[in-house]
Amino acid sequence: MTALSILGQRGSVPLVVLAALLLAQPLAAQIAPQLGRPVSPPAATTGPWSLQRAIDYALEHNIGVRINQLTMQNAAQVLHQSKAALLPTTNLNATQAWQYGTSVNPLTFEFQSQTVRSNNVSGTSQLVLFQGFQLRNTIRRNVLDLQASEANVQKARNDLSLQVASAFLQAMLAQELVHANQLYVTRDQDQIARTKVLLQAGSIPESTLLDSQSQLATDELNVVNAQNQATIARLNLLQLLNLDPAANPDFQLEMPNLPDPDEENALVLNTTELFQGAASRQPEIKAADLRVLSAGRSVKLARGAYYPRLLLAGSIFSGFSSAPTVIMLPQNYWDQLNHNLGQQVQFALSIPLLNGWQVRTNVQRTLLNAQQVQLQAEQARLTLRQSIEQAYVDARAAQLQYTASKRQVAALTTTQRNAEIRFNNGLLSGTEFNVTKNNLNFAISTQLQAKYTFIFRRKVLAFYDGKLLAP
């Protein structure tokens, strides 16, 4: 899920449906447990939660981020092993055997027919002198892979921060929607009280009271639905923070004083310049570029198999046999080991000629992979540019929509007051009066939606510009 798809789409929908669209966005599942760390939710916390506190807490406790950190540590171990491959390999070997019947003495090569106990001890060492630069190319590739893993960790942290910011704003919007619906219920109750007075005075028919009571029932249902959506938004944020809802019944948000979109100057950005700056900072672009370089090293590594392989090997060996021989050998164990001591040094050259086209096929596969990784890097840049452009367009549209909605709310407020006066004087039916109220309620909900859409899109653009998501 991209950062730009987290808040809901604008549209003409009722207040409660609008809340559902904005708040019912699925969050990325955090399912893979990290080894050696508890996967149960942390204990209860106290105090109201600011956006910065929520982001910091999520970054520390989120399982997905910890999995990426383990992946990075694994890449570091792979790099360490590739560096160690430059060292010579050294091994010690020892055997002990019993031979029965006729056999050949492994030390004197004489035939013998008796039970013989023999020991062989040896030490071997081997060093790669030349292997088509494969060892060094492996190290350089693994360095790039480690750096890409580090960038992936930062990307996971950035994605999580955006998700927390979105969930936090969704929870704030949910609370405002509950408050707005509760105000509508209060106004309905006041209106019903006045309607009853007018009905007793004979100024209005009984159907007008029934219309007002019907409107009250509808708005009370909207309050319940809005509270349910607020509960869902709260649960989504708690789950994103890996907090146990049962252990945090008093979880509250610290509601910041957010400026209205019309309090800022009209949003004007050069998206090309913003993209160029973001491309130099965003970890997903860095990771994609590092994978391109890593793929290039893989091609060189595969081509190294075309070259000869030169090894330097050395060994030292000795043995003991309990059998008496024509050639007089010392019978003392250590004296015989010293007498039979031998050393060997050798160079081994292997020249590949034909191996079922395995090297050629492997080279072609690494070339194709390099092309694929290059396209993925281009796609990462394209996605980033489109995300910035979309965020800018959405922010501009939301700012303009907020300004228009604010004027609409002001106009409909005046209309609703005039309608109330006419209604109280029996000049307007209950149905017509409820229409003016619902028009005002919808305008207020549209204004709230535009406000929070602008705030989030503005934070996304600031994030791409290298600024913090909070405060």
Strand content: 5-15%
CATH topology tier name: Outer membrane efflux proteins (OEP)
Number of strands: 6
Strand arrangement, largest sheet?
A: 1-4-5-6
- Helical segment count: 10
- What is the number of domains? 1
- How far apart lie the N and C ends? 23 Å
Broad CATH class: Mainly Alpha
CATH architectural group: Up-down Bundle
What does the radius of gyration come to?
38 Å
CATH superfamily: Outer membrane efflux proteins (OEP)
User: What is the succession of H and E elements?
Assistant: HHHEEEEHHHHEHEHH
* Helix content percent band: 55-70%
Q: Tell me the overall shape.
A: elongated
What is the structural class? alpha+beta
Give the biggest beta sheet: 4 strands, antiparallel
Average pLDDT value?
Answer: 85
Low-confidence stretches: 1-40
In short:
The protein has helices spanning 15-23, 51-61, 63-84, 134-200, 206-240, 271-281, 283-303, 333-339, 358-424, 430-464; strands spanning 89-99, 102-104, 111-113, 116-130, 309-321, 342-350. It is of the alpha+beta class and 471 residues long.
What does this structure look like?
The protein is an alpha+beta fold and 471 residues long. It has one domain: Outer membrane efflux proteins (OEP). The protein is 61% helix and 11% strand. The chain has helices at 15-23, 51-61, 63-84, 134-200, 206-240, 271-281, 283-303, 333-339, 358-424, 430-464, and strands at residues 89-99, 102-104, 111-113, 116-130, 309-321, 342-350. A 4-stranded antiparallel β-sheet has the order 1-4-5-6, with helices on one face. A two-stranded antiparallel ribbon has the order 2-3. Helix 3 packs antiparallel against helix 4 and helix 6 packs across helix 9 (358-424). The longest helix has 67 residues, at 134-200. The protein starts with 14 loop residues before the first helix and ends in a 7-residue tail after the last helix.
